[in-house]
Amino acid sequence: MTSRTAAVTPRTALVTGAARGIGHDVARRLLAEGWRVVLTDVHADVARVADALGGERALGLVADAASPADAAAVVDAALGAFGRIDAFVANAAVGGPETPLLDTPDAEIQHVLDVNFFGVLHGVRAVRSALARSDRPRIVVIGSLFAQQPTPGAGAYSAAKAAVGSLMRTLSVELAEEVPGLTVNAVAPGYVMTEMHRDELRSRARRTGRTFDEERARVVAQVPLGRHGTGADVADAVHHLLSGAAYVTGQTVNVNGGVLTS
Which of 158, 128, 146, 166 has the alpha carbon at shortest distance from 259? Predict the structure, then answer.
């Protein structure tokens, strides 16, 4: 007789850029929901972060999202450790220089594209075969408010994130037949108080002569909900798309406190 209480194999997610910031909070949320999580990051402490978050259910790997070889190696290691990958969360990103786009050197723009756009592409190429073996395959890419509302001085970042949104929609169509049941969506955060955003506020404060708190207040004034977002806010949306939403694909979920409606 088959037991109704037979153990269910936990689902496994691969999250890039997960040593800190939004990726860290996404990994934390998934582990709290019973997932196994592979965290990757260029920061060497990612293994320690993974161990602190999830112990044996988390694996931390140093990897550069801009490297196709690293992407392939991460997938091999994930399958070796957990035997499956059910979801890919493409979060790794860099902010880029705070200069007018036309004055930004090509090499600096290329670096932003290599990490923010090609990092997603390399990751999906590496993980597609593993996702095809999942019963509920999911891809979520992390976009940005700035892809829809460009900000002066962040042109390279805005352009790269806009390209990520287009890539997401293309993949949702092109992979639909190849990987049955796969959904591909984006979550676009607004003003989330990550270290990257803190650096932007500090830089803006230096340029304008205002204080950090004054710059923070100027940002919050643009948000109808009256506060900065948190990594947990973004993680809620990512978890929803990974755990359900089986008939939602090719969409962007905006997590910005209502900025685009104001």
Answer: 146
Q: Which two tokens stand for residue 25?
A: 């909070």
157, 158, 171, 189: the catalytic one is 157
Domain ranges of the chain: 12-191+230-261
What residues contact 206, with CB distance under 8 A and at least 6 apart?
none
Q: Give how far Cα 170 sits from Cα of 66, 167, 174, 249, Å.
A: 20, 5, 6, 11
75 vs 70: CA distance, rounded Å: 9
Reduced to 3 states (helix: H, G, I; strand: E, B; else coil), residue 87 is strand
Q: What is the pLDDT of residues 61-86, one digit of tens each?
A: 999 999 999 999 999 999 999 999 99
- Has this prediction a pTM greater than 0.70? yes
Q: Give the integer Cα–Cα distance in Å for 230 and 191.
A: 8
Amino acid residing at 149 = Q
Helix intervals (H) in 93-247: 106-116, 118-131, 155-174, 195-208, 212-220, 231-243
Domain 12-191+230-261 class in CATH: alpha beta
Q: What's the rounded Cα separation, in Å, for the pair 185 and 46?
A: 26
157 given a catalytic annotation: yes
Distance between CA atoms of 152 and 141, rounded to whole angstroms?
Answer: 24
CA distances from 190 to 17, 99, 142, 146, 148 (A): 18, 20, 11, 8, 10
Q: What tens digit of pLDDT does each residue of 219-238 get?
A: 899 999 999 999 999 999 99
The DSSP symbol for 8 reads P
Q: Residues 130, 79: contact at Cβ < 8 Å?
A: yes
